[in-house]
Amino acid sequence: MKKRMKKLTALLTSAMLAMGLLAGCGSSDNGASSGASAGAESAAQGEESTGTVDTSEHVDLKMYLIGERTPDFDEVYGKINEILEEKLNCSISVDFLSWGEHDTKYSLLFSSGEDFDLIFTASSWCHYEQTVALGGFYPLSEEFIQTYAPGIWEVVPEVAWDQARIDGQIYMVPNYSNEFGQDVLAVRGDLMEQYGIDQITSWDELKEFYLACAQNGMYASQGGPWYQYFQAQGLCTTGGAPKGGELVLYNAQDPEDLNFYYLLDWDGFADYCRQAKELADAGCWSSDVLNSNDERQTGLLTGRAAGMVWNMGSCLTYGRQANSENPDWNVTLVDPVSDMPKKANPYINNGVAINLNSQHKERAMMVLNEFYTNPEVYDLAMLGIEGKHWEAVGDDQYKVIDESNYGVSNNCNWGWNNADITRTEYIENRTALDDTYDAMKEAWENNIKEAHPYDGFNFDSTKVSTQFAAVEAALGNYYEPLVNGLVDDVDASIEALRSALESAGIRDVLAEMESQAAAYVGE
Fold first, then answer.
1. 3-state DSSP helix/strand/coil percent for the chain, to nearest 5?
2. Exposure string over 488-509, b if 16+ CB within 10 A, otherwise e
3. pLDDT tens across 309-327, in order?
4. Residue 58 phi/psi, 5° resolution?
5. Region entry Disordered: which residue ranges (predicted)?
6. What is the pTM assigned to this prediction?
7. Dihedral through CA 15, CA 243, CA 308, CA 424, nearest 10?
């Protein structure tokens, strides 16, 4: 495979060295023995060969991604389909599950038996463990991967495949690019100046900014800053735990602390909920936030909110857009847990899986190989059309021409992130926002936390699937109102949630999690 960049050898040895910012088919042997020798030969040739795999029959594939379709998305994927038609005799269509609806609609795709082939997934936050437990994903044998995606097999490090295993079996293709497991905020610098706020580097300073916004008739964000609170306590979501890992936290900053912090047994949850109600009552976010399907960036870009919460790269992207459209806003980046050592996400924080009911599993895997290892397809999916949305600078950089109509790395291309062929941005006319981003990135890379045994742990809920589903259902009635401060009585609501979770079987889930964690750490 031709590579624009040398392979990042640090990525092969440790998942903690964060370099990026920013997730025969159907046969009983779960593979394709007739193509095994061809697959081995293809692995040596990279993405330029598909061995002897039969592609004589044209197929139309369907993929689900997370987010919203940007204006030029169909045009870009039309270009991608031209390549897929020529190389693999197939095409692919894409549907999106929005940020506001994927929690409720993701599992329905599988329970309803909808006909599709590929879908974005991720550990904890995007339904990987839950969908495996429900039997929704096709298990990927090593032979199957080597045969139909030899380029992917060559690129993805062994540690990433190990992270993707549940009960010894792989169900997703993990991305090959490290990113930090913490959000930041893009906020309007003009409002910080107006309110006399010099910095936002702690929870208390974040609250001060939120309350100042409310006092001046401005929403601070599109919801409660729950993640910023528990990250400030050194805690992190647990892979595979209910509610995308949020219901059970662990102390990521202390490798010696092997306790799990179940929210209803942790005093910090009640403390946060009380503070969230204080902020909500003050008007720091809309009282209708639970009914909103707005994307994370909508409030900032429309001027309805003073900030947005997301990863560093996405905040940079939308901060630039906001500043280009409203230069006087002076949007900047802030980190309310700036002193905390940073956690690098596991590779399975972004990935792609094959639907168990797909009628074209082999072709789907071959298409994913193109997205993952073909530089032309990769650039299209990440950057858009060359000459319209971006232009090349040398062999491994790009310059944005039109970011708003497609969006750099903004169309859920993260499932096939590949550090070997990812272009870096060339910035011709740097701004204060660019300087802030670079300084923050450098500070994070120089402050990576010590590895914790639970960083790679992912709970398998199969043995308690009934209780797990009941817990998820019970959360829907109480959890979001609490973390967004939209309840009349915090203590009463917490007790109602506690009672509902106990009835749902949370203690069975916690006991099984403790058992799996003990075995995991003992390995």
1. 45, 15, 40
2. eebeebbebbeebbeebbbebb
3. 999 989 999 999 999 999 9
4. -70, 135
5. 34-54
6. 0.69
7. 30
